[in-house]
Amino acid sequence: MLVTQDLTIRFGGHVAVNRVSCAFAPGTLTAIVGPNGAGKTTYFNLISGQLKATGGSVSLGGHDLSGLSPSARTRAGLGRAFQLTNLFPHLSVLENVRLAVQATQDGPHRRGLNLWSIWSDHRALTERAEGILRTVSLFDRQEAPVASLPHGDQRKLEVALLMALEPQVYMFDEPTAGMGHDEAPVILNLIRDLKKDKTKIILLVEHKMDVVRELADRIIVLTNGTLVADGPPAEVIASPVVQEAYLGVAKEAA
Predict the structure, then answer these.
(1) The three-state (H, E, C) secondary structure of the chain, written as one string
(2) Residues near 111 by Cβ (< 8 Å), separated by ≥ 6?
(3) Which residues, other chains included, contact 186 with Cβ-Cβ below 8 Å and sequence gap of 6+?
(4) What are residue 231's DSSP bridge partners?
(5) Which residues, in sequence order, are bridge partners of residue 81?
(6) Are 230 and 22 in contact (CB under 8 A)?
(7) pTM (2 decimals)?
(8) What are the mean pLDDT values of the chain's consecutive 10-residue runs (254 residues total)?
(9) Residue 4: partners with Cβ closer than 8 Å, 6 or more residues away
(10) Which CATH architecture has domain 2-245?
(11) Measuring CA to CA, how many Å separate 60 from each of 47, 115, 145, 165, 200?
C-alpha cells in the first residue's frame, strides 16, 4: 500500500494541501481530479519528494518515505512522470532508456558503462532497453537524439523510462498534455497495459473526464487542497460536490 497520512504543505499563510489521508492499493488505478489550483500536482510533488511536506507522512509498503529525497523515493519504488518531460535531450533515445535500466541493476554496471564493462552485461542492458522501446513504439527511433523527437514521442519515451525503472508505483501527471488526437491514444494504451499488472499502483492526474471514466478504478477529488470525494468513478462524478467544484455545475437553488 502507498499511504499518505495527514499530508500537508503551507506556503506562507496558504495551505496548498490540507491533511490529505489516502491509501492506494496494488492493482488499482486512481485518478486525482479537481479544478485548477486544487492542489493535485502539489499532492503529487509531496508524494514523490519534489516538495517537502509541512506535516504528515508518506509510506510505501509500511516504510516511511517522508524524509527521503526524490531519488531515494524512486529507488524505494515510486516512479513519476511529469507534465513537462524530464529527459536527457542530447543523448539518444536508446541511451536514455539504457541509463534507466542500468539504475535498477546491482553489481559493477551501476558504476557506469565504460571500457571495463563486461560486454555481456552491456548487451543485456541494451537488450532490455530495446525491448522497452519496442513496447512504446520507439524502437525505430532509438538512435535519434531526444531533442529531435516531437512532443508526443518524448512523452512515450518518458513512459519508457518509468517502465525501465520497474517501480511499484506509477505516477502520471496529465500524461497526454500537449499531445495531438492521434498521439494521445498511444500513451493511454501504454497505461492500459500497465494496469494489467495487478502488483502495481497507478496514480493519474488528468483533466480529461473521458480518460478518467475509461481508465480509473477509483477517483479522489481535491478542492482547495482538501480531499472532498473518494470512490468509484460513476459515484464520484455524479456527486453534487464534484458537479459543483470540478464540472462547474451550480447547486440548485433551495
Answers:
(1) CEEEEEEEEEECCEEEEEEEEEEECCCEEEEEECCCCCCHHHHHHHHHCCCCCCEEEEEECCEECCCCCHHHHHHHCEEEECCCCCCCCCCEHHHHHHHHHHHCCCCHHHHCCCCCCCHHHHHHHHHHHHHHHHHCCCHHHCCCEHHHCCHHHHHHHHHHHHHHHCCCEEEEECCCCCCCCCCHHHHHHHHHHHHCCCCCEEEEECCCHHHHHHHCCEEEEEECCEEEEEECHHHHHHCHHHHHHCCCCCCCCC
(2) none
(3) 136, 137, 152, 156
(4) 219
(5) 172
(6) yes
(7) 0.85
(8) 97 94 97 90 94 96 93 89 69 92 63 48 87 93 94 88 91 83 84 93 90 92 93 90 64 39
(9) 20, 21, 22, 23, 43, 46, 47, 56, 57, 58
(10) 3-Layer(aba) Sandwich (3.40)
(11) 10, 38, 35, 16, 12
Q: What is the pLDDT of residues 138-176, one digit of tens each?
A: 999 999 999 999 888 888 898 899 899 889 999 998 888
C-alpha cell at 93: 533515445
